[in-house]
Amino acid sequence: MFSPVRTALVCLIASASLSSAFPTERSNPPGGVVITIPPRSTDVGLKLVPDADHPFVAPGPGDMRGPCPALNTLANHGYLPRNGVASYEQIINATREGFNMDHDLAAFDAAFAMLARGNAFVNRLSIGGETPLVPPLPGQIDGPGSPGGIAKHGRFEGDVSMTREDAALGDSVNFQDALYDELLLYTGKFGDDSPITGNRSIVTKKVMAEFKYARFVEDQARNNQLSFHAGRIATSYNEAAFILNLFANGTDGVLSIQMLGNIIRNQTFGANWFRRSSPGTFDLITTQAAEILAVHPVSPGANDENGNYIVDPPSTACNAAYYDLAVLSIPASYSKATGLFRKNVDTLLGAIAKPFGCPVIQPQGPVGV
Questions:
Q1: Contact 369, 330 (CB under 8 A)
Q2: Cα separation of 234 and 227, whole Å?
Q3: What is the DSSP string of 290-314?
Q4: Helix, strand, coil percentages in the chain from 3-state DSSP, rounded to 5
Q5: Which segments of 203-300 are extended strands (E)?
Q6: I need a labelling partner for 335 at 20 to 30 A (CA). Which of 25, 55, 92, 176 fits?
Q7: First and final CA of the chain: distance in angstroms?
Q8: 18 has pLDDT over 70
Q9: Nearest one of 35, 34, 38 to 104, comparing CA atoms
């Protein structure tokens, strides 16, 4: 059985032609920005969110929003740039300020997103789709176009989301009411009773365990292109644990349907919502993700062309999810980076490996996908 404990929150393709096309240190274009990992903050206690300096403003034309309700909410309140294009440091600081996300967990998530779908040379990532504010990588080492943003299918965004369709089935970027209604049905069946309403309106681990498994069964039956390898299982179940622990009101740790709907559907912080009283750590999220998955175990794998789910062979890596995410998903062409670009890549690779306790392994993933 696969377990996402100590996992997150796909080969070597670099060729001689890539090597010759990649810029040398002297030919790196101007405009690079040094990426630094912000220091660990001491402001990590219970706090009312949002404050007066961060009112909700709906996104305007051209503002980037994507499949992550937490990042969308932070942008809607100005904790992230409201245009939805952010630096690595801004993401770490915003997730700590808004959700009390622990430093190492935030550093990992932001680093993986930046290398998977951002531009680590200019230190810019779109939390939605493609934008001219995030140019192609130096030398177009990951293809001629924009990195795509986290809304682009694959690498960061993947199958069996709680509120988005698989890309092969429909809209993988925007909130889907039908899926959310399904989550509400599972809350009514498996949730805890609210002390206020008396109804089953409290979202729990049991709700997440049953709903997540149902989502897998649904998509495995419908999507012949389903991809659910170790890294995606980890991020999918970590999503459930993240919601339970960081969307709940910090005053009591309870996740009501109202609190859930504010962030996941309306993408705003509701009235009288407090972030959690202690940082949400990597271990907290991955341990609870493992508990949710253990109710209905699912092994890493993918569908073949006939819709049969083929389980992956056992992994011998330091950590199966780390290897799938950091090695098999991030483009192998990063190995050709030089100068400031190389320094930034190394900083981000180190941030990805740190919470897993694994040595840094250079990326070996496909280019231009």
A1: no
A2: 13
A3: HHHHHHS---SEEE-TTS-EEEPPP
A4: 40, 10, 50
A5: 227-228, 274-275
A6: 92
A7: 30
A8: no
A9: 38
Q: Is the confidence at residue 247, as pLDDT, over 50?
A: yes
CA pair distance 111, 133, nearest whole angstrom: 19
Contact 154, 142 (CB under 8 A): no
**Single-letter amino acid code for the residue at 305:** E
Instruction: Specify the DSSP class assigned to residue 342.
Output: H
Candidates 215, 279, 270; CA nearest to 245 is 279
24/21 Cα distance (integer angstroms) = 9
Tokens of 71: 């990042």
Mean pLDDT of 177-205: 92
Nearest to 243 by CA among 199, 295, 183, 300: 183
* Separation of alpha carbons 88 and 348, rounded Å: 9
Q: Is the pLDDT of residue 46 over 70?
A: yes
Beta carbons of 118 and 295 less than 8 angstroms apart: no
pLDDT at 211: 98
> How far apart are the C-alpha atoms of 180 and 69, rounded to whole Å?
13
Could you tell me the pTM of the whole model?
0.91
Q: Which of 27, 112, 107 is nearest to 337 (CA)?
A: 27
Condensed to tens digits (0 to 9), the pLDDT of residues 114-155 reads 999 999 999 999 999 999 999 999 999 998 889 999 999 999
Place of tokens 């040379």: 121
**Closest by Cα among 138, 103, 101 to 121:** 138
| Topology (CATH) of 47-356 | Chloroperoxidase (1.10.489)
